[in-house]
Amino acid sequence: MTKLYNLLFIVTIISCDPKNVTNEINAYTFETLKIPIEENFVPSITRNQYIDSDSGEYLALYSKTSQSLEFFNLDTKQATKSIKINREGPNGVGSFNGFTIASLDCLLLASIPPKIQVLDFNGNKKRSIPVTDPKNKVNWLGSTNLVPFLFKGDTLFGSQPFFSDIFKTSKGDAKQSTPFFQLNLSLGQPEVEWLEISRPEDEWDKGKKDPNLSWADRYDSIIVSPLSDHRLWIISKNKGKLLGYKEARSSHLNQFNILKDYPVGDQGMIKALEAGRYEILLNDHFRDVFYRFFFAGIELESYILTPRELFTNKPRVGVLILNKDLDVIGEHVFEDHSIENWNSFVGRKGLYVSTNNPNRDDFDENFLRYDIIRFEGLEYED
């Protein structure tokens, strides 16, 4: 791994050409997964978690209506377990932004006000750990598909990339912000330590951009994928330091939305749709590659849907495939409205993308439905 860090850092420092040569990669649907769900199950698509265990492959999703975390067996296509999440009472967690299953009897929730709630699989709250920062106000905490909690042993890594008011945030304030923290869950009273990792000094040279980001890990490395920057950040968990940057550019993203004034009406959504951005970053440890999703910019006149309908379910979703050294293998753009935003995960069979996009003619709320996508040139078990 040390050799990999050094290689990435050297490539970042000495590279003179900021452009990647990107080719379209062939993709095909290997299989379709359909799981019937109860009428009172309405999944929160901002977070899912794939579990590969001795007893099989499972998918965990939170239901907003039943307020429970549901586990589905991908082989039998049946619900196998349910954990009730109490909002109030002795085990109440209040509002929360996502979850992470840390072990077979440990569930972590990212709650608001910012706390890490530790529950067992019976829904009993075992601990509540505040996440604070004396320098920057922590106004958000999440463990979503964009920024799930990551781990190295008992050490948890989390992110808080936002500002209280981005339009009042100066370039200097942005450079001084520290978006990442760690804490040791094995301690009786773990203290939050904010990593001395700041945003790139030139991030806002061409104007303010969305500060949101995604991340994924591979062994000791955390790979950070800003939504409005072609560069990836490489962080060492062990050192708690930034090792360098590596550009991973999609040919379908030529500009990013510049934030100048408070949006009026639909103008903010329209500008964001026209520009496009990067999205979820997933590590596929079965094939040792990364998937960097993106929303390609569109021309609104080409669609009959309203800006709000298009913004809620982006029509043009693509994925950039990167090897373990973060070099671009290729990219693929799905057909318009063919997949659902954010609801994707990696399994043994391939990349699972949800096809339950409400803008599809065959949308069916009675099923969880995923296409298992495979890409030419990658190796699969069967």
TrEMBL record:
<protein>
    <submittedName>
        <fullName>DUF4221 domain-containing protein</fullName>
    </submittedName>
</protein>
<dbReference type="Pfam" id="PF13970">
    <property type="entry name" value="DUF4221"/>
</dbReference>
<dbReference type="InterPro" id="IPR025316">
    <property type="entry name" value="DUF4221"/>
</dbReference>
